Amino acid sequence: MTAVDDIVAAIVTAQVQAIIDASFKTPQQIVHVGGVVVTNVLDMTIRHGVDLPVGTCALTVPLPISANITPGAPIEVQLGYPGMMYTVFRGTIPKRQRAFSISGARATINAVSDGDVLANPDYVDVKYAGPISLRSLFQAICKRRKVKSYRADTTTYPNGTTTITFGNTLDANKRMVVVPRKTTSLAFLADAANLFGYRVFDTPGGMRMQRVSGQPDAGTALSVTEAWNALALGHDDDTSTIVNYWDIYGVRYTDPDGVTVALHSFPATVPFDARISPNGIGYGELSSELLDTIALCDAVRNVAEIDHREPYEPVTWETHGAPHLTPGDVANVTSPITALAGKQWIMSVEHTWTKDGGFHTRCEGWRGMGAPLPAGQDCVTTSIAGG
């Protein structure tokens, strides 16, 4: 974004923050299905998350269902306040449920976001020529699958400069990246991205590939404060999730001299952690055929160390409706009672709206607090006398 874009974003964020913090507010909603405004929505729940690659929307309307609400119909939902409306969902309707009970005759309309086009498998191998960056691979797959809108961060190692590339080694993979048959593009991309601290997920603005790893360093989209604008707030920690010894295995192949090459990254030393019973070491292992250089293996290990060397500490909160939030944003959360302060990655966003004017947003946050370790060495060099 340009400097002007940053200024505009900051102004808009401040305006939304002021509305959320205000004592009195008037929530509004607009739902379009098949290009027609739906005026009889009783309630709705919309979910997006960095680990929920395809967003969902469930809304309830009275029976009978109007003619425009048909399977496959496009749906767009806007939520917000007077003069400050945001699109919070775009997608299509694959499923409708009708039911009659003592509470009335109602239909539940279930929709999936536009990124669902990535969730169908191919029945042939799909190949991409390497070396290809993770970012370019994401873009190529989205283009092939005709994703309506998509955007990716520059994809780098944790050092922030070295580009992540696949299909680097001729002997290992003929410099090709292969999405195997019967594998969904979405699952393939998500698995590849997660290795390096990136997530692939849908948002109302389109499909995203974004780094969500370590401590957030971006500007905040919302400030959440105990006893001020937080309706509910929780903070957990779990030392059983600590992993301080990671083994990372890459591709195994035979070089032109007939020598077997097995890529393996591990830490040179493992610091004792008294929080891990009984011996101070928590073990984890990751492997991928995409890792065809030792540098890629080291980068994956560093990301795992950054994100898992400290306890997993999910943070949850609920505020009055915050329609501008999307997964991957950053929130500044303060709660002295739960011993919490600082920036959190917004991992999931759930908006709920009811016909009586209730509009709430529930989020889960997290941040990685570990640090990378130096690499170990498991190669042996043998000197051969000349003759």
Description:
The structure is a single chain. The protein contains five helices and 23 strands. It has helices at about 5-20, 135-145, 170-175, 185-195, 295-310; strands spanning about 30-35, 35, 45-50, 50-60, 75-80, 85-100, 105-115, 125-130, 130-135, 150, 165, 175-180, 200-205, 205-210, 220-225, 230-235, 245-255, 260-265, 285, 315-320, 330-335, 340-355, 360-365.
Can you count the helices?
5
Question: Unreliable segments (pLDDT under 50, ≥5 consecutive)?
Answer: 379-387
Class of the domain at 118-211, according to the CATH hierarchy? Answer: Alpha Beta
Helix percent band: 10-25%
What kind of sheet is the major sheet?
13 strands, mixed
Q: Give the quaternary arrangement of the chains.
A: single chain
Strand content: 35-45%
- Termini separation comes to 62 Å
Radius of gyration: 24 Å
Average pLDDT confidence is: 90
CATH topology of the domain at 118-211: Phage tail protein beta-alpha-beta fold
Global structural class: alpha+beta
**Global geometry:** globular
> What's the helix-strand series?
HEEEEEEEEEHEEHEHEEEEEEEHEEEE
CATH architecture of the domain at 118-211: 3-Layer(bab) Sandwich
Query: Count the strands?
Result: 23
